[in-house]
Write a structure and sequence with these properties.
Number of strands: 8
Shape: globular
Order of helices and strands: HEEEEEEEE
Number of domains: 2
Number of helices: 1
Largest sheet: 5 strands, antiparallel
Radius of gyration: 17 Å
Helix content: under 10%
């Protein structure tokens, strides 16, 4: 992080009891009301044409359960149609993919497991 970034974060959080910090394993997090919220997962490198399976994503903070991919996707296989696009959630990138049951759509990399 640059000193300017740290100054901005300090200015934003100086009037609250919240703390924003940088740590290597989860990239970015905020400690708010005695709870840690991790929100940044780097874009995944999954090549176009790769077969993937929908899996639960890890929790973003201590009391959160594993996250379900939704829409009855858990365990469904899909093929990757695009490289990761940065997403506003920072959940491992946004991929275009196709499944036989759901057709074409976008989903986040945190919920994808490469099938070997």
């Amino acid at each position: 992080m640059t000193s300017l970034s740290l100054a901005i974060i300090s200015a934003v959080t100086s009037n609250t009891s919240n703390e924003v910090y940088y740590s290597q394993p989860c990239s970015y997090a905020i400690y708010m009301n005695e709870q840690e919220y991790r929100w940044h997962s780097p874009d995944r490198d999954i090549p176009v044409g790769t077969l993937v399976r929908f899996v639960e994503a890890p929790p973003r903070y201590e009391e959160e359960d594993w996250r379900d991919p939704g829409e009855d996707l858990l365990g469904t296989t899909a093929i990757i149609l695009s490289e990761a696009q940065s997403d506003s959630y920072n959940w491992g990138g946004r991929f275009s993919l196709h499944t036989t049951g759901h057709g074409y759509f976008y989903h986040w990399g945190d919920f994808l497991e490469i099938i070997q």
